[in-house]
Design a protein that fits this description.
Length: 64
């Protein structure tokens, strides 16, 4: 199973991960102004979010 590690200190809540993820793993938490993982089980391990995040605060860790 894949693991997603977010550096919330760096996340600006820009929404790029929400727009990038093809299977809607992320949602913006409007109260906190940061991203939120809402559907980890859908993750395809494509790493698009990690590549596209402008703050480089997402790490996708592939696991067996
Ligand atoms: S793309 Fe990066 S900075 Fe933007 S909301 Fe997602 S995790 Fe936060
Ligand atoms: S690795 Fe791909 S499927 Fe998984 S959260 Fe990131 S963009 Fe979505």
């Amino acid at each position: 199973m894949v693991k997603l590690v977010i550096n919330y200190d760096k996340c600006t809540g820009c929404g790029t991960c929400v727009e990038t993820c093809p299977v809607n793993v992320y949602k913006i938490d409007e109260d906190k102004g940061k991203t939120k993982i809402v559907a980890i089980n859908e993750c395809l391990d494509c790493k698009a979010c990690e590549v596209q995040c402008p703050e480089e605060c997402i790490e996708v860790i592939s696991e067996d």
